[in-house]
Amino acid sequence: xxxxxxxxxxxxxxxxxxxxxxxxxxxxxxxxxxxxxxxxxxxxxxxxxxxxxxxxxxxxxxxxxxxxxxxxxxxxxxxxxxxxxxxxxxxxxxxxxxxxxxxxxxxxxxxxxxxxxxxxxxxxxxxxxxxxxxxxxxxxxxxxxxxxxxxxxxxxxxxxxxxxxxxxxxxxxxxxxxxxxxxxxxxxxxxxxxxxxxxxxxxxxxxxxxxxxxxxxxxxxxxxxxxxxxxxxxxxxxxxxxxxxxxxxxxxxxxxxxxxxxxxxxxxxxxxxxxxxxxxxxxxxxxxxxxxxxxxxxxxxxxxxxxxxxxxxxxxxxxxxxxxxxxxxxxxxxxxxxxxxxxxxxxxxxxxxxxxxxxxxxxxxxxxxxxxxxxxxxxxxxxxxxxxxxxxxxxxxxxxxxxxxxxxxxxxxxxxxxxxxxxxxxxxxxxxxxxxxxxxxxxxxxxxxxxxxxxxxxxxxxxxxxxxxxxxxxxxxxxxxxxxxxxxxxxxxxxxxxxxxxxxxxxxxxxxxxxxxxxxxxxxxxxxxxxxxxxxxxxxxxxxxxxxxxxxxxxxxxxxxxxxxxxxxxxxxxxxxxxxxxxxxxxxxxxxxxxxxxxxxxxxxxxxxxxxxxxxxxxxxxxxxxxxxxxxxxxxxxxxxxxxxxx
Length: 647
What we know:
- 41% of the residues lie in helices and 18% in strands.
- The chain is α/β, with parallel strands linked by helices.
- The strands form 7 sheets. It has a 7-stranded mixed sheet, sandwiched between helices.
- Helix 8 runs parallel beside helix 15 (497-508) and helix 17 packs antiparallel against helix 18.
């Protein structure tokens, strides 16, 4: 009896010791292995990029991050709660990797509390629930010199840019001042399509790329008539300017001669410039085309300003409204350039997914140039050049496809130019004349206080210039979906246009830390097989349509000839009656063929979708069941064999 009691006591003691050991191991693991993790996601969503590591390593003074999250109120919203856990995990990982330079505070701003007042005073924006409560979900960072940066709300639309947004906030706080970006442009970047009039009414909608630039750099807009680039400008971005006069071109030329970096966008046909404002007209003083011919030639770049690149393989789908059955069509003048047509060896384009551009020109290296011309992105080999005048005439997407004749050549749209440069000028030009040829205005600040740079014939080191034959890369409609209005606008990128512009400027400024972060968005995986099936069907459809139109036109001419005065009466001519009957039969057959092609346009795609659905829904479970059944049979046979041997 005593032994039974002892055994029972030992069991209770053992269970108690195991419980204590379990709790101790969990506490020990939670403390010691808190930062240990294995990221098994395909895009490594929970692993910090090397760019973030570099930014953290460069922090000189402590930075405090206050993560405001209304945890108790967000419990009823699973999507917010899940995203908040990811944000908290990343912030803790950044804190742990900063070696004490990042101080993280988590604040739950309960309703009517001092923490809620603090959140509002710091510029955070809450999301109101149906019950009238406000959920705060944002981040505020401060440094020791009263610098403050904030992410007002972690919008789900920018979830793929989480690491970039947080790292950018930290980098902005770790620098004494923002780098200066000089901009020479005739695009309404800071006001949007409405221009200055919309801005005066308080209704301006700046380009989303400009807002990204404004957050990242100190912007210095240069008038499109100046004699010198300011000394504090780190990089000069020339974005579709008006025709620049000689002294302005000289100022840019000498900026490059002295080691200045340039990002230039020129365009044979700028659709963003032609975008109408609320008054139905483009911004006053718009320019349809832009060029920097003297400078580009000196830089070793030949820009074709007379032709537009059309690409059948990379064409974007657009709403046509011409055929109710089809709805959409390939528009070869607008292209979505995928990863395969981007230079994977250049840090600016290596991590991009795709760019959306419109009515682009093309670039070529100048023979005998001293510079090295490196393409950054280009068209496919299923492309051709359209005359600019023809593009301006407004051909329909189907018209463009019918006459499409690919040259088999890949046309360069963006390129990097590097190496030693010679000046585009033999000497300093006359600085006493403005763009109209008249005398300069002595009351202008640039004329009265600025003196041009002394002439320098060449660069002392290698130049670094990026040229793009398009300006529609800035157009919001091509790369972003915008939610909200005014200051509450949230950008949900659908292409990497902003990433390219920001990465190019960062690279020209010598900072590559944030480039890899901007590319950590969800991969856009197009259904290439479906797209190819659709394109083949549409080409067949257009060919049949064209054949039918030709046949109808020929037959109508014959009928007109038969019915003209002096011709034989068609009703009495058996041959004419046979032709009419034959025409009607051919017309019915052609229309039937068109209907068959239109029907087949979806038939192959639907068949593919059915096959994929069967594989995902039925085939995989069947294979798993067969595998389990086979494994059970093998085990049964093994047990039976062991039993027979034992017997």
